[in-house]
Amino acid sequence: MASTKFLYYKCHVAFSAALTGFHATLISDQVLEGRLGPSTVVLDHTSGFEGLLLVDDDLLGVIGHSNFGSIRATTCVYKGKWIYEVLISSQGLMQIGWCTLNCRFNQEEGVGDTPDSYAYDGNRVRKWNVTTTNYGKSWAAGDIVSCLIDLDEGTIDFCLNGVSLGTAFDNITRGAGMAYFPAISLSFKESVAFNFGSRPLRYPFIGYRPLQDPPSVDLVKAHKLLGYLKNVIHIGIDVLEGKLVEKDTSTWQLQGEPTVLITLAHIFNHFAPLMCKVYLVEDVLMNFLLSILERGGSVEAHPLIQQLLDLMWLLMEDYEVHECLKQLLMSLLRAYRFSPIIPDLGLQIHYLRLTIAVLKHEKSRKYLLNNVLFDVLRSVVFFYIKSPLRVEEAGLQELIPTTWWPNRFTKEGKESKEVKEESAEERLRRRAYDRGCQRLKKRIEVVEELQVQILKLLLNNKDRGGGEASRYIFLNKFRKFLQENASNRGNLTVLCPPEYMVCFLHRLISTLRCYWDGHKAKAPAALSSEEAYVPPQLFYNGKVDYFDLQRLGGLLSHLKKTLKDDLALKANILIDPAELQAVTMDDLDEDEESATSTAQPWEARERPVAALAIGGALARPSWLSSPTLGRANRFLSTAAVSLMNPRRSLGTLEKMKARTLSVEQRTEDDIEGSHGNEGLLLGRPPEEPEQSITENSLLEILDGIVMMYNLSVHQQLGKMVGVSDDVNEYALALKDTEEKISRCPKKRRDIYEELVKSQKVFSEKLNHLSRRLAWINVTIYSKEKMQDIYWLLRVCIRTIEHGDRTGSLFAFMPEFYLSVAMNSYSALKNYFSPVHCMEELPGYEETLTRLAAILAKHFADSRIVGTDIRDSLMQALASYVFPTRTLNCHGDGCQDNGALRGPWGCGFGYRYTRLPHLLKTKPEDANLPSLQKPCPSTLLQQHMADLLRSDCDMAPSFLNSVLNQLNWAFSEFIGMIQEIQQAAERLERNFVDSRQLKVCATCFDLSVSLLRVLEMTVTLAPEIFLDWSRPSSELLLRRLAQLLNQVLNRVTAERNLFDRVVNLRLPGLESVDHYPILVAVTGILVRLLMDTDFQGAKRATAVFLADPCFQLRSIQYLLGHAEPSVLAATPPSADKRHFSLHTYTDYISLEELAKVEQMLSHLSEESKQAAASILPTSEEDLCPICYAHPISAIFRPCSHKSCKACINQHLMNNKDCFFCKATITGVDDFTKPASS
């Protein structure tokens, strides 16, 4: 025992001597020559900025909030070599560099636009100093720009991710009064974070010093203390022999040896305060922990990190541990986000492994979940895999040495009809490219698996020691995260970027399904993840907060009042009248707050400028600038420069809508339930089976995943398809160039050389894009990702089906479930093809059948009241009627199966992915999107046709809803173009609101889509209109004829309103033209009049001719026959071309044109015969309601009369007589007696 005390005494004396010798060896913190300003360098938020800016509370991150805002640092340099780093958070328009105090910037001119300012612009790849020239490389989000200035030599250099871009400027102005500040100018929504030296530079350069000195004294002290800590871990005390022995650090454990514990306590007494500083945590602690993991093996093979975290919680004050863990996670996240992509993704893997090691420590994990991961950090960044902009730096050339791209499309955007056999060379290239993609996929899967491990730790529900399990903390934070993104749709600085959401969604699905199936293994009676759905009671029992998201039946407060009896009867849930009153008052308060918040920008003009200067805090940190800072952002405006406070207390710029705060107060029992309490499943309706689904907490996570997809994931999936479109564009350009080279005359050497240069440029661009596309296909459009989206589609379908069975309670379901069902199917159909074929997914046909049933049933569902969701249902139906490029995915031999193509091969004249009228008039705008991609599901169409044929009640309800919506949409469109035309004709200068133009174009697109829905119905189930033994068939046909004639008359009249607005060619109305709407109408007419049996065509012809609005000239217009009166009034002009289907032969087949010619001849002949055979009708014999048709029906029992069309339409909504209000019990045919 005496020897042990002696050994401890020796250690203690040595340790104390080392501490007392610090000051003799430390480098003094002297003021450096060549630098002026505060030693702590930040952005100058008091006077050094121009424009509107949002600055993070640490004064190092900035977001542009105006056209071109500028800001400089607080410290300048006039001598020596200096460096600072800029972390690029968005890759837009920015100019980064140096400026002098005399530089004056404005909203148009920034850093680099004045004589004594110098800047690098990686967006446009240029350097700026009054004039501009090409320089450097393009930057991307996640890059780090180093800005170096040598005032001894008079040069400025820039580096990108540690690689020098060369000297940008030399011989810069120096001398008396010339000192340079770090500065930046950035456009709206662009963002960066600066590192002047408050953290270790990621890419230091020899000879250059950061503007802010590192904490040299603390740094040396921390490294020495860390050395002592390592010695204690490496060396143990052999009590028996009384000597120090070396130990294996990987197996070191704190076993309570008094000597070791006292020594460690002494070390941590000095070490703990240092670990609260970001520089020391990143440079000392993080690097030490990373070095432990560098020895290889799994994270579990390094328990030393867990032991060190135990030591920290034991020997440090709580506030010290909290700050240290926060700074450690901030450093890890920053390092992960801003590490360059290397071939093996080694840097990302390194930082993720340490993150996992830290989160494996239960106490640390719970603290971080409760206070840091969602409150201070943007931890979703950990689940993001950024896409490299420069494939050569990411090593993709080595991974994918051979590139390949498909050649499928013609110049007009149509798929080539010629199916060429793949040559042997192309086959080898494609296979080599696929092998490269597989190598890339394996490396990315390693990162994805680590990200899933992080989520598995956060969703652990077995770590109940010392408080609530991690999963329930995560649930509450996750719900707040969703609320933040759902309630701030207009505030882009608060929203999680969609690209992060996509990755987070896939990792969360993988983790959820793992836990779900794990529970199934323990409880065989529960459902597997393949059968997952969200039970309907979550939508109305108040256990899950949907923060005022729209329900299918309207506002929640309204539903609680109108359906309180159904809730009591079916779900045994009683609504307290006092709660109803409180809800109503809350709604009123929210409306007032919303109005006040909306008025703030305008009121700010009348307030004292101090109010704007003091500003307020955004509720959460910005995603765009520093992703790791949770404190408030500062709002800077040049209108209030003189009144800016250097450090202000945090306020609130706007209130977060958080009516339901009980989410944070929920316990595990409130979620999972216990002792008869069903938790989240409270209020099970009788239609819902009693079978256990899974753990209740997993149901809430599943609900959140569906909401995430609706918020921004679908939008991002559509956006990334653009890279594939670029590949097709360049492939077409390369093919065209190669054809020109082959045709080039040998004499024209100059032309040949230019073509070869173009060929080289296109080939290089395609090589770059094909490698980038490989990365995107692996990270976003892989088969596994497609299966995730398909699983989500099936979850939504099952959830909607279960909700539908609850009757009136279905109205409580949030609208986004229907939206995700439609959008996820659209994504599978349009975005993942042709990389992966949707038809290969398990249960594909059954899924489409169930989706068709949902769309057809709920299209006219009275429980759904929201106009937006009803419009979405219409658009979804419309998307199924457009032509498929090939039918070879629907079974062997289907491509040549005329029987399958005959009933519904395509919509009339729809064989394009770009608007044909734009290809003719404005080829440069031809890349504007079409109404829908020509990509239908014939299988889904057939299922819908079967439903409409078999359900005699559904078909009239569905079609009347379509006709009503078409009538509304087209009427709104006509009303809007009247206003647009009136504005254009006024003498004074007028501007048409861009929002009005957008709504106008939307109404037009909606009208075209609805016409396509009708065309599909007429094609697949014509008997619904033509079999008059079915109820309402005649009425439906008459209504259809009336609407088609109105559309034709409005669109085809010469020099009419439609013509004039189309000829204005207003931006925003590019899709509005004769072609899209006329071919849709023509398709319906051809199907009814030419492609049906004799009896059906006869009935359809009679109805169309009998309609008072029918005009034969409208049909003649389709084929370019101008109105005779117009030809006589105005001589033909060479510039004026009449519309004709004959000019669109690339999109309309000769067979279709022949049918239109036959239809015109048929209607011409029939109209002549009808005119000759119709006897004059006296006014007394006309229908007293419409005065358009003769009286043909008599009502029982009151014997009043009208035409059949009027009474049939009236009886659909009302059973009372037009005239006497008696209840009509029947309608009989009426024929006027001959004697009369």
Description:
Pfam families: SPRY, TPR_RNF123, zf-C3HC4_3. InterPro entries: B30.2/SPRY (IPR001870), B30.2/SPRY_sf (IPR043136), ConA-like_dom_sf (IPR013320), RNF123/RKP/RSPRY1 (IPR045129), SPRY_dom (IPR003877), SPRY_RNF123 (IPR035773), TPR_RNF123/RKP (IPR057987), Znf_RING (IPR001841). Residues 663-690 are annotated as: Disordered. The protein is of the alpha+beta class. It is 49% helix and 8% strand. The chain contains 39 helices and 23 strands. Strands 3, 4, 7, 12, 13, 14, 16, 17 and 20 form a nine-stranded mixed beta sheet that branches. Strands 2-5-15-8-9-10-11 form a seven-stranded antiparallel beta sheet, with no helix packed on it. Helix 9 (362-371) packs parallel to helix 12 (470-487), helix 11 (424-458) packs across helix 13 (498-522) and helix 30 (994-1020) packs parallel to helix 34 (1074-1089). The protein is globular, with a radius of gyration of 36 Å. It starts with a helix and ends in a 7-residue tail after the last strand. The N terminus is likely disordered.
